[in-house]
């Protein structure tokens, strides 16, 4: 029997597995991993397959698909920069896919990387969706005329798009007011204000905003790096622009909007509103809007009342067991009448204050983090308070017990 040369033996040992494999077999193995949800492992398998078969289109498409699925998970979890990276990796594999470029642009926009998002979206074509997001970038960065021009162009391509109708209508209400506004700036805030407002008020507002940035940021554990737009209105202009309820003292809808007509300086009440609205900025940054209204408003009330606390009786002493259900407090308060809204804010403040005082700011930060990862409020509470063995029902039970104790203490006095 002829002796096999040692070099050939080594070749067979090391190259044998690669020779035995084929793209279909490797792709099928990756499919099993994908079906199990092991996307990272599937990526490793498919990357190895592409190195073995670099010209196999099926393997490349499967790898691009897997990156896309990971990116979708990232989006759901609020990890926008990671989503943009994974969409970008998929796009490199399939450069002809305009949809992958669009998705990367959207992820960059959601992560507030506006320059990179604009560059990506400009490559995504003239469809209505990339134009919507290009308009949003202009809107968010203070270029209202530019946003309107892009959205109107998109409307011409997609006349029945209701989202565009809403965006254009909102921008058209704001433009006549904002076009006559003056500008002011601080380290993190871009301020627009009515030219008729008293001189010096804008500087005081910027000072209050910077104080809120530091104080509320320390409580919630986040300090935004993207500049924050703030607008000061006369009361009449505020009402026409926001179409909010009569009792509204401020609004955050991606921009902080404050009615300051008649004021010559920042009063304690206005300072409280500034801290309240800035809290909404940070809560939106942390949760991406996935938060029940009672917790959002409760935290904002907590921060605002540190600056100015109205002389009100303790919530428990007034309400006792007659509290609003969480279901009604989880939706927006804007549709409520003044009396009901007042009660909703009071109860929201009482619940949020109880949670921070009982469980601490770190637990609240964790709760907001889990909400930002798209957990429901029940799941987020259970995770954040796992050391206490509490779920949302348990927290509400402890809160109601605290009301009873408060009422009993007031009665004894």
TrEMBL record:
Q: Sorted alphabetically, which SUPFAM superfamilies does this protein's record hold?
A: TPR-like
Q: Where are the transmembrane segments?
A: none
Give the UniProt keywords, A-Z.
Signal
- Give the highest taxon in the source lineage: Bacteria
What the entry lists under Pfam families is as follows: Peptidase_MA_2
InterPro entries recorded? Peptidase_MA-like_dom, TPR-like_helical_dom_sf
Q: Where is the Peptidase MA-like domain?
A: 220-404
Secretion signal, residue range per the UniProt entry: 1-20
The name on file for this protein is Peptidase MA-like domain-containing protein
Provenance organism: Geomonas terrae
């Amino acid at each position: 029997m002829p002796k096999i040369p040692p070099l050939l033996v080594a070749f067979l040992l090391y190259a044998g597995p690669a020779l035995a494999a084929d793209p279909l077999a490797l792709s099928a193995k990756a499919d099993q991993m994908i079906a199990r949800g092991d996307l990272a492992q599937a990526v490793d398998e498919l990357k190895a397959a592409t190195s073995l078969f670099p010209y196999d289109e099926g393997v490349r498409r499967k790898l691009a698909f897997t990156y896309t699925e990971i990116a979708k998970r990232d989006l759901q979890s609020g990890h926008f920069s990671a989503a943009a990276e994974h969409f970008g990796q998929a796009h490199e594999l399939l450069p002809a896919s305009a949809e992958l470029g669009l998705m990367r642009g959207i992820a960059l926009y959601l992560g507030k990387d506006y320059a990179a998002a604009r560059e990506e979206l400009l490559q995504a074509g003239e469809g209505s969706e990339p134009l919507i997001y290009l308009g949003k970038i202009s809107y968010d960065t203070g270029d209202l005329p530019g946003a309107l021009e892009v959205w109107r162009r998109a409307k011409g391509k997609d006349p029945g798009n209701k989202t565009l109708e809403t965006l254009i209508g909102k921008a058209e209400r704001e433009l006549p007011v904002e076009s006559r506004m003056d500008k002011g700036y601080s380290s993190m805030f871009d301020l627009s204000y009515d030219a008729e407002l008293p001189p010096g008020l804008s500087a005081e507002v910027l000072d209050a905003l910077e104080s809120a940035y530091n104080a509320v940021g320390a409580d919630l554990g986040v300090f935004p790096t993207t500049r924050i737009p703030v607008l000061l209105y006369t009361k009449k202009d505020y009402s026409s622009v926001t179409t909010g309820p009569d009792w509204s003292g401020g609004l955050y809808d991606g921009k902080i909007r404050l009615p300051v007509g008649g004021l010559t300086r920042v009063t304690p009440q206005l300072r409280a509103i500034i801290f309240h609205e800035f809290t909404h900025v940070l809560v939106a940054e942390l949760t991406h809007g996935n938060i029940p209204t009672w917790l959002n408003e409760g935290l904002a009330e907590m921060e605002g009342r540190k600056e100015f606390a109205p002389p009100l009786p303790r919530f428990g002493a007034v309400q006792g067991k007659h509290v609003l259900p969480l279901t009604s407090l989880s939706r927006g308060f804007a549709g409520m009448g003044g009396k009901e809204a007042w009660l909703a804010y009071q109860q929201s403040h009482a619940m949020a204050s109880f949670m921070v005082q009982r469980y601490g700011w770190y637990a609240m930060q964790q709760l907001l983090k889990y909400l930002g990862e798209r957990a429901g409020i029940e799941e987020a509470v259970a995770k954040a308070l796992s050391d206490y063995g509490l779920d949302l029902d348990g927290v509400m039970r402890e809160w109601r017990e605290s009301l009873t104790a408060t009422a009993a203490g007031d009665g004894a006095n």
